[in-house]
Design a protein that fits this description.
By secondary structure, the protein is α/β, with parallel strands linked by helices. The strands form 4 sheets. The chain has a 7-stranded mixed β-sheet, sandwiched between helices. The chain has a 4-stranded antiparallel β-sheet with strand order 10-13-12-11, covered by helices on one side. It has a two-stranded antiparallel ribbon with strand order 1-2.
Length: 815
């Protein structure tokens, strides 16, 4: 029987499979117009809530003490000109027209760009060395490149490399570990700033919305009301997170649509009523006049102006929930024109009221006609909540990606929707965000400091995206290096100007995202470092397969009934913790499975490509290795269902004949090489049925006809004590040939073992620094990493394992 081809466990599919030509998810597929318009409508509530509420605080932040009011309108028109061109160049030109095309199988965000680069160049340091053992150079090659390598298609490889300078850039990344670390640090910095934005955006959005009370209350009294109301709204916002966005999702889009229509109509009213000629500010000449007149004050005010693009990164980060066209339609047809009209309307009002200094400080609500101010205030608070919800959900997704790739301690992840896998809830992160939000709101009590902090976080993420995109243009799109250089120079210069204006306000609130990023970065680096050292110890101290094959009954080793499932980080060899277990307890199960769960740097791995199965040693030993691969956006299966699929993948591996090893002097040739040939086992080819039955019943081995399926059943020997238990049957595909006796015997033994039960052997490794290590190393390993390990969740597969079926083995790793 033909064996499936051996594959690299880090690759999502072997060359030549349908995955080679598989399109991205929704990012690349052509959807019907009705579905695209429906997605565009939904994206208004999920993606654009933050961006659409920015008019609440942009002018207030821009004129916060950096620009003195005067009798002319040059400053007002200059700010409007900067807002217009910033909205046009960054969200519209950069994100909508360029960045959205750089999706990773339909997914977006900082880590999506990083994983895209890692698959087009061998520059990956994630996951933390898992599976990246010596000689595994092709683990992140894209499928087209692997196929070209096998077929000798040189032209395909030249197209992949882009030729000339692009190939030089790729070789430079592949040869220098320092550049690979810089690339990883860039991705982590962007991620940490997104998390920081998840703290700052709810605070500034809700506080700015509530600040409308300032107009209807006496002087100084509003300060005693705004902060408590903002805190109550924030507590309610975070307390409702566990319900999931899908329960209130149908309300989100209408709220944002009503808000956008509201601010655009107010803008049109102000333009017509106060200053119809405000459109002159759309000329870039007014930016030059603004900077020439205000000089240093105008440059510092750019830190407030950049808040007009806060939330733009959400267009790319939430790409996985929609598609490119839907996000582009929503922004260009609804969001962009509404925001431009809103900003023009505010500028038109201020042009006739610039003498009143307090009008600069109050911001948006002063330009709202008095008759509709209270309804607008209510809509603004709802819109701020929606915008905050989107950023919080994005933060959860980012933490999930970091956890999946080994860069963040394991946390509890709850999926709040059965249909949309991206909608998740992380309790620990939710309450941490709430505490930090409340602390910032109570501590700062104004939008000036919150705006300075939020601006620095936003512009840092955009700078990181620009840097990574320049590499994507060369390595993934195979464009000229001059085009990439032009991209980073044009957008990088604009963003660097805003970045410098934000950084200069370090003591006025901009220190907050830096401190938050430093804390999260330290957590990520410490966890990543400790995980790497732990994996390296496993790799260096793994036991050869020959040691396992050399275990004989003379040493007192016995095999007990059942399946023993051993989790390991290694995808070859025997982990040291198993030898430690056998040395102290000389027995293991009749069927032994070494399971390795890998999180690959891809958003999704299809179920047909999830399980890789191989054999350790000769058939008679009944020892297997199973590698289970998940993408960073995949949902881990239910434990019982996962057990069934795992056992079915072993059964299919046995039936397919992929496990035939040639023996040489009683020891397999693969064992001599200390490695196994892994084969992809598609799920669903064999089904396993479990029925309640009595232990004393005996069923003859044979095949019965049910429909056209063939069933293999195990005899159920009567134990000394009659205990009810389950009977297990494997249902083979209808068209499958009758298995030969050796295969039937092995399947029968697997069935027997499954009926006897499955035991989980969980290793608990405690990492300690070696004697003589430096003080810094002992601090990081013995205290920081150990603290994170003790306060993090266990592996997903171990959370709901029955305690009666668990055997824990402890071992200390000295690294």
């Amino acid at each position: 029987m033909k064996s499936p081809p051996p594959v690299d466990p880090e690759s999502p599919a072997p060359p030549g499979t349908p995955s080679d030509c598989k399109e991205g998810r929704q990012g690349s597929k052509r959807l019907p117009w009705r579905m695209t318009l429906s997605l565009a409508y939904q994206s208004l509530g999920v993606v654009y809530g933050d961006l659409s509420t920015s008019p609440l605080y942009v002018y207030k932040a821009a004129f916060a003490e950096d620009i003195q009011h005067s009798e002319t309108n040059e400053e007002i028109l200059g700010v409007l000109s900067f807002v217009f061109w910033t909205l046009t160049l960054v969200p519209l030109l950069k994100y909508v027209c360029i960045v959205l095309r750089a999706d990773d199988n339909g997914e977006g965000g900082t880590f999506a760009l990083y994983s895209l680069l890692c698959r087009h160049a061998r520059a990956a340091l994630l996951p933390a060395g898992r599976g990246a053992e010596a000689g595994d150079d092709d683990q992140f090659l894209d499928m087209g490149a692997k196929k070209a390598l096998e077929n000798g298609n040189a032209r395909t490889l030249v197209g992949r490399g882009g030729g000339g300078a692009a190939a030089s850039v790729r070789r430079l990344l592949e040869r220098h570990k320092v550049l690979q670390r810089v690339l990883l640090v860039l991705a982590l910095v962007g991620t940490c700033m997104v998390i920081g934005d998840g703290v700052l955006t709810p605070a500034i959005s809700v506080f700015s919305a509530v600040s409308g009370l300032e107009l209807s209350m006496e002087k100084h009294q509003h300060k005693y009301v705004e902060v408590p109301i903002a805190c109550i709204v924030l507590v309610c916002l975070f307390a409702l997170q566990h319900y999931g966005t899908h329960r209130l999702g149908f309300l989100f889009a209408p709220i944002v649509i009503v808000w956008l229509l509201c601010i655009s109509m107010i803008g049109v009213y102000n333009i017509v009523h106060w200053e119809p000629h405000v459109y002159r500010a759309l000329s870039p000449y007014y930016m030059y006049k603004f900077l020439r007149k205000t000089q240093r004050g105008g440059w510092m005010s750019l830190g407030g102006i950049l808040l007009c693009i806060t939330g733009s990164e959400a267009m790319f980060a939430d790409l996985g929930h929609f598609n490119q066209l839907s996000i582009q339609i929503a922004f260009t047809c609804m969001v962009y024109p509404s925001l431009i009209l809103a900003y023009m309307g505010q500028a038109a009002y201020l042009c006739k009221h610039h003498i009143i200094e307090s009008d600069y400080r109050i911001g948006f609500y002063v330009s709202v006609p008095e008759k509709i101010r209270w309804p607008v205030l209510a809509i603004a608070i709802l819109a701020a909540v929606v915008g905050s919800q989107a950023v919080i959900t994005g933060t959860f997704s980012m933490i999930k990606q970091c956890t999946a790739l080994g860069c963040f301690p394991r946390v509890k992840i709850i999926h709040t929707s059965d249909k949309v896998h991206g909608q998740i809830y992380i309790p620990e992160i939710n309450w941490i965000l709430m505490i930090l939000c409340l602390a910032l709101t109570i501590g700062f009590r104004d939008t000036k400091h919150l705006g300075n902090a939020s601006g620095l976080a936003v512009i840092t993420v955009m700078l990181v995206t620009t840097c990574l995109m320049s590499l994507v243009i060369v390595l993934c799109w195979h464009k000229s290096i001059f085009l990439a250089f032009g991209f980073i120079m044009f957008f990088g210069t604009i963003e660097a100007l805003y970045f410098s204006a934000s950084l200069i306000k370090f003591r006025e609130g901009a220190w907050v995202p830096i401190v938050l990023s430093f804390i999260f970065m330290a957590i990520m680096c410490i966890w990543h470092y400790g995980t790497i050292k732990k994996y390296e110890f496993d790799l260096q101290n793994k036991v050869s397969i020959n040691w396992l094959l050399g275990l004989s009954p003379n040493l007192g080793i016995v095999r007990v009934r059942g399946i023993g499932l051993i989790h390991t980080e290694l995808d070859s060899g025997i982990p040291a913790i198993f030898s430690h277990f056998v040395t102290n307890l000389p027995a293991f199960h009749q069927v032994l499975i070494f399971m390795c769960i890998k999180n690959v740097a891809m958003p999704h791995v299809s179920p047909e490509e999830r399980f890789l199965v191989g054999r350790i040693g000769p058939k008679e030993y009944r020892i297997y290795r199973c590698i289970v691969r998940y993408g960073y956006h995949d949902v881990h299966q239910d434990d019982q269902e996962f057990e069934k699929e795992l056992v079915c993948s072993i059964a299919e591996f046995i039936r397919s004949g992929a496990s035939s090893n040639k023996l040489k002097n009683g020891i397999s040739e693969e064992a001599e090489k200390d490695e196994e040939r892994m084969s992809i086992i598609p799920s669903g080819s064999i089904r396993m049925l479990e029925e309640d039955g009595a232990a004393e019943d005996t069923i003859a081995v044979g095949s019965t006809s049910r429909g056209a399926d063939r069933e293999i059943m195990s005899p159920s020997p009567s134990p000394p004590v009659v205990v009810p238990r389950k009977r297990v049957r494997f249902v083979l595909p209808a068209a499958s040939p009758r298995p030969d006796p050796s295969v039937r015997e092995e399947l029968q033994e697997l069935t027997n073992a499954r009926e006897a039960g499955m035991a989980f052997i969980l290793g608990h490794s405690y990492v300690k620094a070696k004697n003589g290590s430096s003080f810094f190393r002992r601090l990081v390993i013995n205290f920081c990493y150990d603290f994170l390990r003790r306060n993090s969740r266990g592996p997903n597969y171990a959370v709901t394992i029955p305690h009666a079926s668990t055997l824990e083995v402890g071992m200390i790793y000295y690294v």
